[in-house]
Write a structure and sequence with these properties.
Largest interface: A-B, 81 and 58 residues
Structural class of chain A: alpha/beta
Number of strands of chain A: 18
Low-confidence stretches of chain B: none
Radius of gyration of chain B: 18 Å
Structural class of chain B: alpha/beta
Distance between the termini of chain B: 29 Å
Oligomer: heterodimer
Bound molecules: iron/sulfur cluster
Low-confidence stretches of chain A: none
Largest sheet of chain B: 4 strands, antiparallel
Strand order of the largest sheet of chain A: 5-4-3-6-7
Shape of chain A: globular
Number of strands of chain B: 8
Helix content of chain B: 25-40%
Strand order of the largest sheet of chain B: 1-6-7-8
Radius of gyration of chain A: 22 Å
Strand content of chain A: 15-25%
Chain lengths: 472, 198
């Protein structure tokens, strides 16, 4: 047969060390990122086996899931968290792994710092014990989340064993309308596919909408691939990609750069390549999105009403349970609902572009009194840019404070928990029951929708506020 | 990590007929602070199982003495969300050796296979049959045969076959893990790595 291949095939096939008949492929992993929560048991496993880390220069460690976002210079108060952080440091040191712990200038959320320092590269295989590793697919890498047994596997052998996923392409063309961000595009896709619609697949995103997106936007989209069940998502690298990675600390230079470029320029889906499944949407029909239920597939255009149970496809039992938990009713509009918390951050929307978007909308306005807002940069680098670009001044003027980097209320492992019963508009990735704290109710949305909620104190269509800006 | 070999499991089942059960429900993030793999079973389904004051919620199935067994039967799309292997550990540590559903999330399925919990995917119809049978009689015995790749409702003899790749099947039946396999082909890996720039 012809040698036409998809982008995914090219990268996957070139990393297969060994094929097992009626079994998984042995896949070589170029780069491995670890954090404090899913790695300690993996290191313990190595110790029990009496083996070490095979290629320590291919693993990078950062502390993020369990870290406080205020007073990071002080000792971590929670003894269990402190112990986990200490273990990461000890394990990294013992095995000679680059370690960017709390307070380190390169510290931040694993999927934010990877690209920032050029660890993330086109055509690479990248894994981490965190499902949103799919973020790195924005650079044309195969990147996905793994479990702790697999973290141990990568440390010990630099390989994992997985059957090759099927291929899906999602094409979106057209132009995004005002107020529609990459987050909305992703929430739209998930609402169409449900949280299991891409299970078993690796997704390639193609079309103008993604071509025209910034690298930050592409990361947001790829980040959310896992929420429709996909193993990961990827976008073919282009000039924008190469421009972004050039000159970063772990990016090749000189002759190595030329050699890498020669490879990277082959990373696209061949013209006649076949996908197991292909979907096409019209980008101009997408509006700012919000979720109303307790999984990311339960999303809708902000101007719409919550669908009736009879019109949903995600499963009737979970639908009913969801609305009960959220205290919403089928068929009602969410517009104008009073909210209590706003969270801007996470590896989904904690990059500089997200802070620019948020700031653009709160500029000249004031934070609503009924809202507690947590603004958490994805890394120290993002934090520095927020200050340098003058965004912090605007935010402060509008009554907001900036916290220190980390996962924070995305998974609420640290102190940043939304209290029971409180309603939050969150730019993170999961609205599961209790995800942001026991009993917390989460509406997922873009930084613009979050900003509109933060200044009005309720669910508000950001386009209304953007119009005002245009008039004045 | 070594785990018990899996051959034929005969047991009653615990039904959880809810769809899209995500790993944040199976084990909430605040219980992921341990640095060793133990005690996770106590917090399995923590927030569905206990009230805020730690008293058990009477209507949750794990608190209902009518149901017990080594097989957990869940609704469609079981284990979606986070990659935390702790979810599979919690299931194992609580005492389950097998999870049955009509659809599993990828990473959760992988994690289960890696630690000795057998994920058995059946048709939606067969899943409903199991739920109905267990609801009608909580003492209903199920037989899960890994060698035959077959799950049977013992009272009626109705059965369905399930998929698992030959490699993983062999691993589970012998209690092997992937690292043993990979260490055996270390030479191949080293050759590959030598030709792969960082
Ligand atoms: S921000 Fe959330 S999703 Fe991202 S790495 Fe942290 S916990 Fe995982």
């Amino acid at each position: 047969m012809s040698a036409t291949k998809t982008l995914f095939d090219k990268v996957w096939d070139s990393h297969v060390v060994h094929k097992i008949e009626n079994g998984p492929d042995v896949l070589f992993i170029d780069r491995h990122m670890i954090h404090e929560v899913t790695s300690p048991v993996a290191f313990l496993g190595l110790k029990n086996r009496g083996i070490g880390v095979l290629y320590n220069e291919r693993t990078f460690a950062t502390a993020d899931h369990n870290t406080p976002t205020i007073n990071q210079h002080l000792p971590v108060a929670d003894p269990l968290s402190a112990n986990q952080l200490k273990m990461l440091e000890e394990n990294a040191n013992e095995h000679g792994i680059s370690y960017w712990g709390l307070g380190h200038e390169k510290n931040g959320i694993v999927h934010v710092v990877g690209p920032e320092y050029g660890i993330t590269q086109p055509g690479a295989t990248i894994v981490c014990g965190d499902s949103h590793t799919s973020t790195h697919g924005a650079f044309g890498a195969i990147a996905f989340g793994i479990g702790t047994s697999e973290v141990e596997m990568v440390l010990a052998t630099q390989c994992i064993m997985q059957p090759k996923p099927k291929r899906m392409r999602i094409n979106i063309n057209g132009e995004l309308s005002k107020g529609v961000t990459p987050k909305d595009v992703a929430l739209f896709i998930i609402s169409q596919l449900t949280t299991s619609g891409a299970t078993g697949y690796f997704v390639e995103y193609a079309g103008d909408i993604f071509r025209n997106m910034s690298m930050e936007g592409r990361m947001t989209v790829c980040n959310l691939s896992i929420e429709m069940g996909a193993r990961g998502g990827m976008i073919a690298p282009d000039e924008k990609t190469f421009e972004y990675i050039k000159g970063r600390e772990f990016t090749p230079t000189g002759a190595d750069w030329d050699k890498a470029m020669a490879y990277w320029e082959t990373l696209y889906t061949d013209k006649d390549a076949i996908f197991d499944k292909e979907l096409t949407f019209d980008g101009s029909l997408i509006e700012p999105m919000i979720t109303y239920g307790t999984n990311p597939g339960m999303g809708m255009g902000i101007s719409k009403d919550i669908p009736l149970a009879t019109a949903t496809q995600g499963g009737a039992s979970s639908y009913k349970k969801s609305l009960e938990y959220m205290k919403f009713n089928e068929g009602e509009s969410m517009m104008g609902k009073t909210i209590d918390y706003v969270f801007l951050g996470s590896c989904t929307n904690g990059r500089i572009e997200d802070f620019r978007a948020f700031t653009s909308l709160v500029k000249g306005r004031k934070k609503a009194d009924n809202v507690t807002a947590w603004l958490v940069p994805g890394s120290h680098k993002v934090e520095a840019a927020i200050k340098e670009e003058g965004l912090l001044d605007i935010l402060t003027e509008a009554g907001f404070e900036l916290r220190e980097p980390g996962c924070s209320a995305c998974l609420a492992m640290n102190e940043d928990k939304i209290p029971a019963g409180k309603l939050a508009v969150s730019t993170s990735n999961r609205n599961f029951e209790g995800r942001q704290g026991p009993g917390a109710r989460t509406i997922l949305a873009s930084p613009l929708v979050a900003a509109a909620a933060a200044v009005t104190g309720k669910v508000t269509d950001p386009r209304e506020l953007m119009e005002e800006v245009a008039i004045h | 990590m070594a785990y018990d070999k899996f051959n034929i499991l005969t047991s009653t089942a615990v039904p959880l007929p809810i769809e899209n059960v995500d790993t944040d429900q199976i084990i909430p993030a605040r219980f992921l602070k341990a640095t060793e793999r133990k005690g996770f079973g106590d917090n399995l389904f923590r927030d569905w199982r206990y009230n805020q004051d730690n008293s058990p919620k009477k209507d949750f199935v794990l608190n209902d003495p009518t149901y017990s067994g080594k097989i957990l039967v869940g609704g469609k799309n079981f284990g979606s969300g986070s990659s935390r292997e702790h979810a599979a550990w919690a299931v194992y540590d609580y005492g389950f050796r097998c999870v049955v559903s009509s659809f599993f999330a990828d990473i959760f399925r992988n994690n289960c296979l890696n630690i000795g919990v057998l994920p058995v995917q059946v048709s939606a119809e067969f899943l409903q049959k199991i739920f109905d049978a267990v609801e009608a009689d909580p003492n209903t015995q199920l037989e899960v045969s890994l060698p035959e790749q077959k799950i049977t409702l013992l009272p009626t003899g109705e059965s369905e076959s399930f998929d698992i790749n030959g490699y993983k099947k062999n691993n589970m039946m012998n209690g092997f893990d992937d690292i043993d396999y990979l260490l055996n082909i270390k030479k191949d890996i080293e050759t590959f790595a030598a030709n792969t720039p960082l």
